[in-house]
Amino acid sequence: MVRIKIILTILAIACLSNIGFSQEDSTEVKKDSVNIALLESYNKRLLEIENQRLSDSIKKNELEQQISALKTTDNLKKEELQAQLDAIKGKESKRILEKKARIDSLKKTSTGYPVTGFFNDTLFLLYSKLGGFSPKERADAVTNRIEKLGSDINFDINSLKVENAETTHDIVFRQSIIMSVTETDALWNDTSKEELAKQYRDNISTAVVRYKEETNYFNLAKKVGLAILVLLIIVVLIKYISKLFDYTAIKIQLQKDKRIKGIEIRNYTLFDAERQINLLLLINEVIKWFIILLTIYISLPILFGIFPWTEHFAATLFGYILNPLKNILLSFWNYLPDLITTIVIIIVFRYFLRGIRYLKEELAQGNLVLTGFYRDWAEPTYQIVRILLIAFMVVVIWPYLPGSDSEIFKGVSVFLGFLFTFGSAGSLSNIIAGLILTYMRLFKIGDRVKIGEITGDVIEKSALVTRVRTVQNEIISIPNSTVMNSHTVNYSIDASEKGLIIHTTVSFGYEVPWKTVYAGLIDAALRTELVLKEPRPFVLQTGLEDFYVSYQINAYVREANQQGIIYSELRQHIQDVFNELGIELMSPHYRAQRDGSASTIPPEYQSKEK
Predict the structure, then answer these.
(1) Does domain 500-606 have CATH number 3.30.70.100?
(2) Which H or E run includes 193?
(3) Residues 197-239: pLDDT tens digits?
(4) pTM for the full predicted model
């Protein structure tokens, strides 16, 4: 019962909301004011023409009387008066043609004022004023007189007649004039006054007869009964629709852990059985209420169509759905040629990109060699060309997009352009720096580099950042613009071919022969595992200080990424070699001021001293 009350409430609200359909909105008021201005301008000119017509009509009557009063023998005077009469008739024809031309030009822009029947149906339209009545006042007055005809119990269709007056044809009911049809009315409808008056009379007669038939007690009772029957059918339909979906909800719940076991994508559980059941129940409920509301919406026009006072609501309600659907279908049909053109353009660009990608792969694999073009340039160059081609494709397709010439579409495009420009200023600088770094070939993935104060192996080069893994296994992301503004040292770029020189400095006192130091440092370097035998290590004296001489051992290696291990092993061997030689590795300043303390050489090496 609660559900039935809700449904009846919805129906009542819908009925009440449709009562306001006849109210004028601001747009209609604006159009009406423009229409009034056009018709007022026309009627002002029409009044001038009408005054001239009355003057000519009076003169015409005088001439006709004078001609009829002349004697048959006075032919000369008769011809003169007849000529004046013919001139007035010619002037009358010219006046009618002028009025017709003005009316034809107004038909394109102005709208008439409706004379309505008993069920808000338009019987005919009025455009011209009559006497002191404007077209709108005239239409309202005729509508009120027609309403009075409906309340006349003794109305007889034969009592509504057309009578010819001097300048109009009047529609008369008994002794009352319902309306007068003027020459201007006839010109607006491209017919004669008499024919137009008969047409209006027939429309009025039909409206009155239909009103009396529709409003008799028997028909009203039949329509009320039919409305009640429709309401009962709606309630029954909604009841069984609800039962049907309640049944499907129970069936869905019974399938838990049977057919409904959840949804898994690879090893990821998108929905378990419980969530899937809840989702299906929600979909079931949404579909149920959609069908119920659709049933109510479809039944309302049927219900409104039963009574003549509300039957125009049916067309309005159906129009809310049918008009958008019709517009969508027409828009799609009109857009079809542009859509086919867009698809062809996309297909052409797609296959063109495939050809460029094939060249990229050949260049990257070394199958195709271009002078001065490196293999590692293939991928970034392809991405640049791809972006440019896609941008060009969008420019070509843009005029074919639906709504591309609308002001809203242009405004949104400009807004997105500003948003992208100002929001990605920093990102764009990093992207441009990334492209420059690619073509500068400063480093590649796996190279040991030093960027500013950061030393490590390059593990990633993207459009925005360069990522480096330090010797402490830290991942540091450096913006490409920062890389461009910093000095970069690449330890690996020539290591595989020419070798990388590692070096370390050791100081000895002047009492130690330099030849002994040279031999010991070279021996320590050659003992180091990853140091190359050729080219041989060499020693440089880098300073002659007050108490000592600085010696620098230089050795060639190819594994630039293992510098830490090589340096550590080299320093170990330097200690071993000079301990074996009996030469202390300590500050010469200390040795110069020694007061007899023991040697710093470890005991296991002392037996080997010379």
Answers:
(1) yes
(2) helix 193-214
(3) 888 888 888 888 887 777 777 777 887 888 888 889 989 999 9
(4) 0.46
